Amino acid sequence: MVEIQRTQSESSGSLSPSAVEESKYRLLYSKSRVYVNPTAYARDNIPGFVALVKREAVNPTYLLAWIPETLLCEKGTDEWDKFVRIEEKAMLDEEDEDAVLIDLPTQRPESYAFSVPLTSIYSLLVHPPTLSSWHGTIGINLINSSTLPTLHFHDDESFSTTLPFRYSKSNSTGAYPPTSLPSSSRTSTSWGGEDLLSRLRPYAHLLRSTLQPSLFIVDPSKADIDTHTTQIFDDDAVDDILAQSSYASSHSPVPAHRRPRPLHSVPANTSNQHPTRPSVLHRSLYPPSISTTQSSSHARMALLQSFSNITRATRHAAQNILSHPLAKPIVPHLPDPVKSLVNANGDLEWGSWVEKGGVGEFESARVYLARWARIVAEEGDRARKREAQALPSSSDVVEEISPLGVFELLHSTINLPSPKTSRDPAHPIDEALWAKWFDKDGRPKVRLEEMKCQVFRRGITPYGNLRKKMWPFILGVHEWDITDSEREAKWEEKRKRYCEIKDEWCGVPEVFDRPDVLEERHRIDVDCRRTDRTQPLFSTSYEDTADNGSNGDRRYTTISPQMSDIGAQSPSNEHIDRLAGILLTYNFYNKELGYVQGMSDLCAPLYVAMGSDEELTFWCFVEIQNFLRDQSGMKKQLSTLQELISVMDPDLYRHLEKTDGLNLFFCFRWVLIAFKREFPFDDVLRLWEVLWTDYYSNEFVIFVALAILESHRDMILRYLVEFDEILKYCNELSMTIELDSTLAQAEVLFLSFAQLVADIDRRRAEEATDSTSSVLRQRGTSSSEGKASLSKVAMPTLSDNLRDLLKTGR
Questions:
Q1: Across the strands, what pairs with 125?
Q2: Residue among 531, 452, 541 nearest 108 (CA)
Q3: What is the rounded distance in angstroms from the CA atom of residue 328 to the CA atom of residue 326?
Q4: Under a CB-based contact definition with an 8 Å cutoff, are residues 48 and 68 in contact?
Q5: Are 451 and 473 in contact (CB under 8 A)?
Q6: Within a 10 A sphere around the Cβ of 761, how many other Cβ atoms?
Q7: Per-residue pLDDT tens for 479-514?
Q8: Which of 38, 105, 118, 655 is deepest in the core (most CB within 10 A)?
């Protein structure tokens, strides 16, 4: 027997036999090459073992676990060999002579490992391999409504299918080739997920839902059994109904020429347990004869058409009733399928039916088509760029194929010059150039505006710690036109100010445990534990030590309101606690605003770029913080973006108006956290330093949002006709947007907007001058007045919000 026990501290002394028994976990089943896919990219897939573990005790507990291969490698080859050996035994169906005992699989969220009791699993969502998806999947839903990572079974890589098949001693006779195992020795399974289900059935009751065949309820309750065992008619149920219907009787009130012909019944003297008359599906696939098919098809079509008419009439009646204003109070209490019938216009549109009618996992065909067209268009743009680079340089070619690709600006009534982008991200600012901008005493040689201009056009190199030096100047934390000694003295004052604010709560129990502070601590702790956990600073967790209480200040460096909350969430570490401390200090710094969800998304990249410097991160965060609890700032930005679309792209504006998309909810996340979740982490840093320069506008983020919409306007106008489709399409743009081309388009859009505003002001000034001078002149003929009226062009009205977009400098 192979036995591994948990290591106990020396101070705990010897364990009792019952305690030793409780610490044993027996490995019952394992399957290799079961992947977890954290992202949509195959390179990020994590291979591992899915295992069934038994906790040896008086009342044994069975756990379902997934352990990544890297975690097993850390424990050594012995632990790896145990999982492989159990998998081979499951393949051979051998009886366990020696029990294999392992350590309890540890839950490490950064590696997606988990181990949960079978009693805590509510359901399994099983999707076998198909032609479009080679690898089957199993999704695990827990009783507490949380979902574990989806398991992808790569059977073509699993050890049980790739290793040479080895027979047990009982089957080896020394002869070659060895005799094969009897076919009845083991039930054949088509893929790894089916094998896992067969291994779970001896330890839990798995009920397959009749409503959704891919859903398996684990140890269902009586309510679950009643819900998921609804009788579903067989394929030949229609034939049975028709065989006994009154249509076959001569007393039927239906005229003879309208009656469907009765189907032939099964002979009474047949001894076959299966009916000789095939089902409707089989007869449609394999018609026995033309006459039989024709005689049955009319009856089936007549009955099915009657059913469809009844269903359609019932649906429209339900729509009319539930859409009435008096029915609004009861609508929230109705089941979801019934809610899907409620529509203000009384119509059941395709887009709402897809999202609400029970087939949400199948996306709209228009969304799929728009995504496909976008990919084709992007490939075409890249191909044109490659061809342009290969062709000899000429002025005509450069003007036709620009770095922006196919990008059509607003058509104006006059020939305005076409704006050009000034960005050059291929040559970012480096340490050498930064050093040339300062004298020996630290006083800059260039103006602040020139420095911001270079940052906007070129960006900052990601190598080294140049961002830590430059970002405080861009954000205004450090003053620009002073010496190093003066700058250091001012910074020391801010450092002391930060310590004073932090001392208001750190180490002060009467403040730290106040009810209002407890609430803020809990919100901050929850957000920080799930923010940017892929970054190295936040990916690790505290080591499990027995003497955590030796550090007297340990409680005050943990923001979690209760120590028990730590085990219910993702594990924390030193940097996560320091990040939470910065946000809690900001809560005391700006007591009127406090902490708002999403601040952790803005603060975490600052913490990484500042090299985990608390004081520098805090004051940079203070400068970029523009959150408002009532989100009135967000409302103004989205309203300004709506007005900008109406001026720059009237066609897109009218389309959004038709689809009820003028609320621009699909842009809310973009503007709220400055595209934090739309670009990779490194691109977010490059984007933010461009936005902070305020080189063209204080609200340049709005032009970035407009550039993304303009890049996809053709897809939106051509394929997406529902608000839900536009929302889904824009949400799925995350991590697919190219940053440099988007910033170049945003710059061109701003320059075009500035030209348009200048042209409108010039025309209105000319009209005002003409109207004043016309009073002094004699009235012309009616024909000249007609020509003058025809020459007038209606110019768009610019609100104060649009004119504020031209302001720069805060």
A1: 139, 215
A2: 541
A3: 6
A4: yes
A5: yes
A6: 13
A7: 999 999 999 999 999 999 999 999 999 889 999 989
A8: 105
